[in-house]
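> forwarded from #structure-qc
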């Protein structure tokens, strides 16, 4: 499915959807973080979620993974055709569904005292008995897979180094390698470049594009940097005050539309022009 077709079509069939969210709302106190959001993402798409601070983009991504429960009512979220949430309840099978998703976070979520290699090996825990992981008794095939993943993302030379001694860009590439060892079928990344310098940020975004184009992994990435969304993602979903205000090709985001989306934050949403 082309990005433009996916962007204009009604929510698709479960068989072809990476994510199918219908009428999703989430309230924190008196604030409506998500307000009747409906989004469909096809397997193999690369989609950016953008919007000003507090627009709901991170809440939507966390709701897709089941890490954030949604309000009760008619809202539903499914991933790979499996229900993640319905009527405000997270499905009991969410862990199995989540195991198919590689999740990348702004703060990397690596264990600082462990080596980069050990952190990447944690991606194999879902298919091994817990005691083997606790003792570090990794199968040789998984060790090989981990080193291949580290080499692919360009940080194999740092495999033995403690994670907390590495730069942010190196750690984030390690987090991507961990998702590869996990065998993730899609990547969900929440502000993965927000803590990085522009050079490291570009390398991380290029890796996500490679995983999408070469490996066919679906990628959903929240970004505050609009120029990165336009450069690296074919499709953009923009949220404002918890509602979808744009869903279409990144080439359709002209200045007037972006000013409408971001308001006073417009100039801050462009990283490269400030770097």
């Amino acid at each position: 499915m082309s990005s433009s077709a996916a962007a204009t079509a009604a929510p698709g069939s479960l068989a072809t959807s990476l994510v199918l969210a219908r009428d999703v709302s989430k309230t924190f106190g008196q604030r409506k973080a998500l307000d009747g959001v409906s989004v469909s993402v096809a397997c193999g798409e690369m989609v950016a979620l953008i919007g000003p601070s507090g627009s709901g983009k991170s809440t939507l991504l966390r709701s897709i993974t089941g890490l954030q429960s949604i309000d009760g009512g008619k809202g539903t979220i499914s991933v790979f055709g499996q229900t993640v949430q319905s009527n405000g309840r997270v499905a009991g099978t969410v862990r199995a569904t989540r195991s198919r998703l590689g999740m990348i976070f702004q703060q990397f979520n690596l264990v600082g005292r462990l080596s980069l290699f050990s952190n990447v090996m944690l991606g194999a825990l879902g298919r091994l008995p817990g005691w083997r992981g606790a003792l570090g008794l990794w199968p040789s095939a998984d060790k090989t897979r981990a080193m291949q993943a580290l080499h692919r993302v360009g940080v194999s030379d740092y495999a033995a180094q403690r994670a907390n001694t590495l730069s942010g860009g190196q750690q984030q590439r390690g987090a991507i390698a961990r998702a590869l060892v996990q065998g993730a079928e899609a990547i969900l990344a929440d502000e993965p470049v927000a803590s990085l310098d522009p050079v490291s940020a570009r390398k991380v975004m290029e890796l996500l594009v490679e995983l999408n184009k070469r490996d066919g992994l679906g990628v959903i990435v929240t970004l505050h940097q609009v120029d990165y969304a336009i450069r690296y993602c074919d499709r953009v979903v923009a949220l404002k005050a918890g509602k979808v205000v744009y869903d279409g090709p990144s080439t359709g985001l002209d200045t007037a539309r972006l000013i409408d989306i971001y308001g006073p934050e417009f100039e801050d949403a462009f990283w490269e022009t400030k770097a």
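QC bot note: Residues 110-183 form one domain. The two ends are 35 Å apart (CA to CA).
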